[in-house]
Amino acid sequence: MVLPAKTARFFQETGDVAKFTGRFFSQWFRPRYEVTEFFRQCFVIGYKSLPLIGLTGFIMGLVLTMQLRPSLVEYGVESQLPAMVGIAIVREIGPVIMALIFAGKIGSSIGAELGSMKVTEQIDAMEVSGTNPFKYLVVTRVFAATMMLPVLVLLGDAISLYGSYLGVNIRGITSFRLYWAQIFDNLAFSDVIPAFIKTFFFGFAVGIIGSYKGFHSSKGTEGVGRSANSAVVVSSILIFIIDLIAVQITDLLGFN
Amino acid sequence: MTEELFIPESALIKKRSDEVISVRNLYKSFGKNKVLIDFSASLYAGENVVVLGKSGSGKSVLIKCNIGLIRPDQGSIEVLGKRILELEQDELDKIRAKVGFLFQSNALYDSMTVRENLEFQLRRHRIKISQQEVDELVKNTLEDVGLVHTIDMMPVELSGGMRKRIALARTLILKPEIILYDEPTTGLDPITGKGIIELMLAIQNKYKSSSIIISHDMNCVRMVSDRVIMLIDGACYAEGTYEEIIKMNDPKIKEFFE
Amino acid sequence: MNKKISTNIKLGIFVLSGMVFLILMLYMIGKNQNLFGSTFELKARFRNVQGLRPGNNIRYSGIQAGTVKKLNILNDTTIEVVMLVDLKMKDYIRKSAVASIGTDGLMGNKLVNINPSGEPGSLVEDGDVLSIRKPVNTDDLLETLANTNHDVAIIAAQLKITVQRINNSTAAWKILNDESLPQNIHSSVAQIRTATAKAVDMVNNLNTLVTGVKEGKGSLGAILRDTSFAHNLNEAILKIKNVSEDADSLTSELNKVVQQFRDESMNGSGTITALLKDSVMAKNVTKSLDNIQKGTEGFNEIMNAVKKNFLFRSYFRKREKQKRNESVQLPAIQ
Predict the structure, then answer these.
(1) C267: pLDDT confidence band, cut at 50, 70 and 90?
(2) I want to staple C111 with a disulfide (CB 3.0 to 4.6 A). Which of A18, B141, C57, C209 is the partner?
(3) Which DSSP string do the residues of B15-36 spell out, in sequence order?
(4) Other beta carbons less than 10 A from residue B233's beta carbon
(5) Is C234 a residue whose pLDDT tops 60?
(6) Cβ neighbours of B110 in A, within 8 Å
């Protein structure tokens, strides 16, 4: 069977990513564990992304609230504004938007960093110096991204809800306690838990795609740029695909 | 074509007791591109062998095979008496600690300072070593390459020649028995390149190491080589001292010296 | 080295604050769903729960008291709502409390309202089933309202017809306009009243007499103790009763006559008026009326006495008291 070249390349790459993921897990369980490097990556990937995630989260909450208000006022359910914004942010918009921002920042940086390390033989050098570069570079980054995105999304949600609180108060007066109570009155575990769990997968997708693209970067600066770019594109698409799968699973499990 | 120079390697190259690297019948291809075809060669203690060949002729592949970075399709490689293709990861790492590798692009870790670059090498290979020892080693090695003042600088702040020397220092810090140089003077101006070559010779003297040097810089070949191996068409085409090689009448060899 | 420690501290703060927010969020939701803290279960069985879901709120007299734990379908017409209620509420909710399904606002979530019924009852226990009030369904409400409207329309139509009839009928208006009619009715009623009062007196007197006889005082007592005589007396009493009833009807007849007299005297025409204008005749009539009245009085008295006889003892005692308090009415017998 002869596949068109593009299709064949697509399947080839999908297979490669799957193999890469398998390699990640087989390496992840085995010592030696690069704990120090993992924490360093957590700091770089998590802590240093907080300002960006926080800013976008804040603006998103504020804007969403202001955009929703007119139609709610039209239906006379303005008082439901916090409940609606709360559910929208916690369930869907927070995780997805922040994961996309995260993909833009971290996916590209991992792709570019590993890509340039590959091109300048740093990965080879690492291997020569008795370090398993896959463990040292890929496992730590992927794992850090997996663990840090949920934390980022949680904090981003909090900031976003605060932004929404300010948005509510632009045209009306709602005490913070009432706002807070309204949000949590309308949230259930089935809103928070699936949203929280799927952020791990988002983080993993960003990490693994970024690493894959970087690790398999072709020679030259152009190759590095391309791997950074395609890392963002592919991981963004993957985020949406995972989101689709997640909503179907939660639906199947009856959490909706 | 001189018949006696076209040597069937296995017949000619006999096992010597001071052989540190022995490569036998190596095959490697990337897709349809056959890079190494039945290549065999040896490195003996204390000598500098220069491998000469065109770009893309597989010189880099050859030395990367020696340290386990690239796996040949076929053949055997013995480094310091160990068949590295059959080694476990741990033992391979032990061999690697004794073999320094100077990358063409230096491969300094961009995210680390010079000190960290050197420490990384030490820490990775010898896990039990005190910080004081590490500091001392780093300083001594940087003195060897004459760049102690750059200890807390980032690689991007350094010039090409300095980076090459730092990379060399990083290779030297483990006091390797064998050093593999991948085009050490490429990309450097002749004066800086000459400096590097002199440094290489000085190190050779100090550490009594043996080296394989890949180059097509004739200055380098002339100054450094004890022996030259011509890598043409994926095999060891010719072998001999620099003087012997340049006297050869083979057109493929002559190409290099014109 | 210092730099490393400070980055680790930053990372620690970052991760911890994320975790704290997660735990806070889960705790707040859990608190709302009463997953933490002590609760107890109450149940209520409805025919239709109108979209109530687990997690919906329970309100006791409007105060947040818990959440719906689950819904069990018991059979085709019964759905059991299991409620998790705050343990604090156990001291207030009584077994007589009534559960109903309501809505939070006009369009909000469904909830279960528990309201005290006002009737006494002991406090609820874990697992109690509360009685329910049929939930106010908007559809039912509208349907009932439509029926009511329909009925009201019919009533209004009929009322309209009635009023029209009254308006059109002259006879009815005459009756309503006649002033003398009520006066007459009033006076005749007054007379009947006096007649009755007199009859009561009569009966009292007879009673005293009979009492004396029962006590066996005097010769009459001896006679009365004879059972055959008593039987005869009973018969006699029955006859007297009949007579008194006749007298009653006579009285009413008379009343009518009197009324007729009056009517006709007002008009000033007819035979009766002529008769009445003769004063002698009028006197005779009055006398005969008087006699009849006296006779009636006597009969009544006897009758009452006999009636009281059956309640012999109590009446006797009453009489004794009266004797002490009042002046003696029948000295002859005593």
Answers:
(1) low
(2) C57
(3) --TTEEEEEEEEEEEETTEEEE
(4) 13
(5) yes
(6) 116-117, 120, 122
Separation between Cα atoms, residue A165 and residue A159, nearest integer Å: 10
Spell out the domain ranges in chain C: 37-133, 177-325
Q: Which of C14, C21, C29 sits opposite A47 (nearest CB)?
A: C14
- With a cut of 50, list the residues of chain A below it in pLDDT: none
Can you give the residue range of the structural domain that contains B38?
17-110+177-192+199-257
| Residues B185, B53, A133: CA angle, nearest 5 degrees | 65
Q: Is the Cβ of A47 closer than 8 Å to some Cβ of chain C?
A: yes
Region class of B31: left (phi > 0), else alpha (psi between -120 and 50), else beta: left
Which amino acid would we find at residue A107?
G
H or E element: which one contains B227? strand B227-232
Separation of alpha carbons C305 and C275, rounded Å? 40
**Token representation of residue B87:** 């080694």
Q: What is the CATH number of the domain that holds B60?
A: 3.40.50.300
Chain A residues within 8 A of B121 when measuring between CB atoms: 129
Span C37-133 CATH architecture: Beta Barrel (2.40)
Q: Which tokens belong to B66? A: 């020696």
Q: Which of C8, C14, C26 sits opposite A192 (nearest CB)?
A: C26
- Cβ of A43 within 8 Å of Cβ of C10? The answer is yes
ipTM of the complex: 0.83
Is residue B11 domain-resident?
no
Give yes or no for a contact between C128 and C43, defined as CB atoms under 8 angstroms apart: yes
Reported as a single tens digit per residue, the pLDDT across B90-133 is: 888 888 888 888 988 888 888 889 988 888 888 776 667 788 88
pTM here is: 0.67
